[in-house]
Amino acid sequence: MVALKPLLKPQIIKKRTKKFIRHQSDRYVKIKQNWWEPRGTDNRARRRFKGQILMPGIGYGSNRKTEHMLPSGFRKFLVHSV
């Protein structure tokens, strides 16, 4: 049996990977760590002040060609019909 190999296997380059936490979730127990978009008019995180938490942006995304690629070089997908 011959092992399957992808035709092209580009090098998977991961950009910066960061865990984005909710603003002031480190300060209060009642505020969970899950990311919420800050919406306050005076919110320092939304206004991107120095020293505040970082917000997710398009710059943290992976390369479009290798975005959902597995380390083997194949892509994972769901088959609906057999």
UniProtKB/TrEMBL annotation:
Q: Name one GO biological process term.
A: translation
Q: Which domain of life is it from?
A: Eukaryota
Keyword Ribosomal protein set for record: yes
Query: Keyword Ion transport on this protein?
Result: no
GO MF annotation, one: structural constituent of ribosome
Q: Which UniProt keywords apply?
A: Ribonucleoprotein, Ribosomal protein
Q: Which Pfam families match?
A: Ribosomal_L32e
Per the record, its GO cellular-component terms are:
cytosolic large ribosomal subunit
**Family from the record:** Belongs to the eukaryotic ribosomal protein eL32 family.
Which PANTHER family does the entry mention? 60S RIBOSOMAL PROTEIN L32 AND DNA-DIRECTED RNA POLYMERASE II, SUBUNIT N, RIBOSOMAL PROTEIN L32
**Record protein name field:** 60S ribosomal protein L32
Give the species: Camelus dromedarius
